[in-house]
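My current task is to audit a protein record that another person submitted. I need someone to confirm that the token line plausibly describes how this chain folds. Take the sequence as given and treat only the tokens as open to question. This is what I was given:
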Amino acid sequence: MNLQYLKYAVEVARTGSINRAAEALYVAQPNVSRAIKELEFSLGIVLFERTSKGMRLTPDGERFMQYARNILAQVDEVEDIFRHGESRKKKFSVSVPRSSYIASAFEEFTKKLPQNEPVDIFYKETNALRAINNIVNADYKLGIIRYASHHDRYFRELLEEKSLESELVAEFSYVLVMSENHPLAERETIDFDDLSPYIELTHADPFVPTLSLSEVRKEEIPDNVKRRIFVFERASQFELLSCNPETFMWVAPVPDELLSRYRLVQKRCPCNTKLYRDVLIHPKDYRLTTLDNLFITELCLSKRKYLS
């Protein structure tokens, strides 16, 4: 198999366009187009679906791309080993939900990185769909996806279709977080109706399978709250909670030191019984590295510390 063709295919998958791939590779567009056709012919499969919006991977193409990226990464590593005596730079990449216990695990992980070895670390906070796509299409190796437990069957089937291994990390119900100056901060118990006069902070990119964004919001967010602010960044969420005592947010349990830093209180609410699952995912053919195992160890420790 022609390694150059693999590089062309990976770049087309990354850019979604033969023209953009050719520009990035500094080669003529017909050369890239011909390489893709010859690659598809030799494999006996269709890698890309040609659409009005560009080139989109077929299911066979997504599976092939996992192997292609691994092959090219291994070729690069072999070249480094024999040119320089050892692999020059290690890489760690993970996509995760916006969650404080996971962020805490990542912080501890970074403290234990080897001091004398070059390394690139990629930590991406995003929703479940993008975490899966980052592994399938963007060369990320690990992911943690979060979903409501009643969607378990859908996600198991999706992960099997994408050739991804999965392992349950944690199962929990959301807790309520608000400023220590919030009017409800001193309440022993809080129900949904108590929250209706206040402002809910929520993630701006929720994902629930087979549902539109408007339907997702109806499923994930009780209708009794009339004012909401959708925020992507976890740090911005905590800043808003701290500064505006009318705001509140549903989250996985938060470490005490973070609550103290932002002067927040955390409330467990009997009214919110929905269970969520955090699931670790990676390609089936992927062999966990030393850095991967180090992160997973810190993740398990953080889960036991904050969610047990």
User: Anything to note?
Assistant: The longest strand covers residues 164-173. The CA atoms of residues 18 and 33 lie 7 Å apart.
